User: Fold this.
Amino acid sequence: MISIPHKTKQFLVLLIKLLIVGGAFYFIYNQLANNDKLDWQKSFVLFNKNQSASGIAFILLLSILNRFFEILKWQNLVTFIHKISLNEATKQVLGGMTTGLFTPNGVGEYAGKALFFEKKDTKKIIFLNLICNGIQMILTIIFGIFGLLYFNAQYNVITTKTVGLLFGLLILLCFIPFFLKKFTIKGYSIEKMIHKINKIPKHIHQKNIFLAICRFLFFSHQYYFLFLAFDVKIPYLTAIAAITSIYFIASSLPTFQFFDFAIKGSVAVYFFKFLGVNEWIVIFVTTLMWFLNVVLPVVIGSYYVLNFKSPRTPEWEIINEINLTYKE
Assistant:
């Protein structure tokens, strides 16, 4: 049996890191440079007119808090296995974001985070990440449905029949775990999932929910304050209802993270046209949200990816798992 030489492994590790980081920067540049719906000149003129040091600092603070609370969520959940520092949690969250940039709905993030832990903990880390993202999705659905109903009451975006269908689906989703809890697929069932969730102490779940709510409030209000910065005057409840509806609908669509702003932008244009907001302002604000909450964390995460050293073995585990051997 002939295994891949040590130096070849090191080269492959470096190549994978460079591909991840290079690909991230390429897609970011491509989306910003080739989006013909963005009117950069108009946007910067209006932004310069209304900008203030305190306003810019406040918007940046909301971005920092958004990601910071995601890091706190992850640090809190990982205590179920063992305690990690805030610095370690930051590396794992931002590094995971970078590795998940090119995968549908960011599933690459699961593998990215798992690589920071021993191989024996892989399944637990993937499960904890599922809970971390799952609670955010549940909150997005709950706030989104109520936001959509409030917005629909004023502007009739969807029919009464569709509203009834949404409530029916929501009720069905609530009861599915009870009816199908013993249904098994490849050894996994809802009952086993619930049992695993219950193994995690309640105080961890409670803190996770609290942090997820805080994070949702930060990024949804950042969206709102960005519109105010562009002289868009919309009643607060109407604006928040539109924003929660946008996140609800956009999160329901399968997409790649680097297309996230394009999906949200299209949905946002549809909702804000009822409020008389110019399309280019909606697109620009959505792009700014994407830049502040995805691009900047990915840029920082790229540093962690390039300096990544797995605790599993002296070599990166991915290379070990795809280590090719040949029979002589």
